[in-house]
Amino acid sequence: MRMRRRQFTGSLLAAPIAAGGSSIASAQDDAALEYYRQAKIDWRQAAGQSLTIGLNKHPFTESLLPLIPEFRKLTGINVEYLILPEAEYFTKLVADLSQQRGEFSVIMTGPVRNWQYVTPGWILPLDDFLKNTKLTDPAWYKLDDFYPALLAANRWNGKTGGGVGEGPLYSIPVLEESYILAYRKDIFDQYNIKVPTTLEEMAEAARLVKKNAGIPGLVARGTPSVASMGTGFMSGLKAYTDGQWSEFDDKLNANFHDPRSVKYTEAWIAMVRESGPPNWANMQWYDAMEAFTAGQAGMIADADFFAANYEDPKKSKVAGKVGYALLPSGPGGKPYAGLWTWALGVNKATRNKDAAWLFIEWATAPRTLLNATVNFRNYNPARASVMNDPRVQEIMGAWGGGSYLKVVAKNLESARVAWTPQSERTRTGDIWARSLHEIYFQRMSAADALKKASAEVDKVLKEAGIK
What we know:
By secondary structure, the protein is of the alpha+beta class. The protein contains 21 helices and twelve strands. A hairpin with a 7-residue loop joins strand 5 and strand 6 (164-169). 49% of the residues are buried. The model is unreliable at 8-25 (pLDDT under 50).
């Protein structure tokens, strides 16, 4: 996939253009900007400056792009963006941050990614921007409108092994992502398959879907990278152990080979090998999402907001045929869902810090996120006012016969970042993911592969001076 780079210098695109000529369009542009001009700040204080925004290929990105000309007209700030697929994006981002080149002024990031950037001081805490009344009108911006769990996820006090929800705020969330089970309700109903509430029931449901419907019983991320680990797989593992397992013990010794982890991993890999797609080992998140959307699987345990794709009749073969449920629980009957938020942060090396903040303030303002959601499908929005807007509720409320919003609301009561905070999370997660390939391809037993992963991770943390 090619990178996409573009400079925005043209007229406003966010507002609809009515028939009748440029004068009507100009009036609509001005009316659209009046909302932002209510903020008691000078939006044009950085006019003439330039920003490059680093973006991952993602539905949020697609919802933001049509709105950027609005920011250009409001502020006079020139904006370019660069979009890359996730693996390439984070590789390029780390190179830019670590070398402090400042190519990206604003970055698309999130809680667990920030842990790598905070320790060496590559990104800026945002609290000073929020407190600076020259740059932020707190009554207009309404920080308390964001779901508290999402803001907390983006705070960290820099303490290895803990401290999430404490200390500085390093990025502003743009959407909520927790992990749920989506399943083909039409197939489950036709063949009288039970919606699973345990891992064992999930494996049986996957087997029955494959046997009766002739499609993979489930799809899942499978690439040997950290991006495959922290979603449905890790949430399921935490649930399987009633939330008691962590990838590290209290002394930061790697714990992947814990007997409970071994047992869960054996069962998960056996399920994927027996009932999953033959290309599981190469599936990125968007491969899994698109396979389910195309009607090529009976279940997917992954991000909740993927439902926007499933339920879009223009893209999906399964629209109106999907049900939503909490991920299977463990022996104690307690569900568990990890939490992630895509968010926007500021590169410390940028020369135009105030302009970068103005972009984030605009991009995460209530009206911008509402526009991105209603018109360009940014699900699930990070602000409660946007999520509760009648237009948003009308759309999302129909998904899964009403089951979708109920499941997401239940997750938001307790969902939390599943990973242990430490700056080498990406490297250690990659090691863990590679161990699943050793098991899947039957090169090693689960016990041996996970024990080897623990030893490799301990070595990484020691070399990094973490332990």
